[in-house]
Amino acid sequence: MTLPSRRAFATAAMASLLVGCGGGSQAGRATAARSRSTPPSPRRSAEGAHALGRSVPVRLKIPGIEVDTPLMRLGLAPDGTVEVPPITADDQAGWYRHSPTPGQTGPSVILGHATVGAYGDGVFRHLARVRRGDRIVARLENGTAAAFTVQTVRTVAQADFPTDAVYGDVGRPELRLITCGGPRLGDGYRDSVIVFAALSSTSP
Q1: Tell me: the pLDDT tens digits for 73-131?
Q2: Which of 37, 43, 141, 173 could be stapled to 56 by a disulfide with Cβ–Cβ 3.0 to 4.6 Å?
Q3: How far apart are CA 10 and CA 7, in angstroms?
Q4: Number of helices (H) and strands (E), helices first, in the chain?
Q5: Domains in the chain, start-ordered, CATH in brackets?
Q6: 158: which residues sit within 8 A by CB, 6+ positions away?
Q7: DSSP secondary structure string, 41-93?
């Protein structure tokens, strides 16, 4: 499987959020370089749940903020930037298909809008309200549900995006949810909101 390099992937993902969350700014677009990576073998996570094989996520639920969204697949745009979900009234989140699927060892990355232009609130508008210990469930294409427990929620300036913490290698299945936050700056936002979660259980 061909993947963007970790640092380039982070830069491109952050740039795409700068474009997407504000509903139209084209500033800060970046190109993702690519490198070869081997998918990890299934293993037991630090939380006690067995890591899963690869299966595409199709739905995401965050009960604490009443999110229940289908998941589209996001790749790279023709110019090499990471895609974001389209600006539509029927907003939904998207899984970046060059990251591990939820439940595989490594950080699985899901992006969503805070706002969707003239349509108002985006699917991740209240992501900053998620709290440590909250449950997040990703439903996979093969019918499995991968449940994650929130470890921490961070709001950081986009200029200080914590690349290694978000996209660095980890030895267990983890989840990253990312959107924009903080004060508006023209068509965009100053900050990024990042949820870090770890796999806690799986069920058919």
Answers
A1: 999 888 876 788 999 999 999 999 999 999 999 999 999 999 999 999 999 999 999 99
A2: 141
A3: 5
A4: 2, 10
A5: 2-203 (2.40.260.10)
A6: 14, 17, 18, 180, 189, 190, 191, 192
A7: PP-B-TTSPBPPPP--EEEEEEGGGTEEEEEEEE-B-TTSPBP-----SS--E
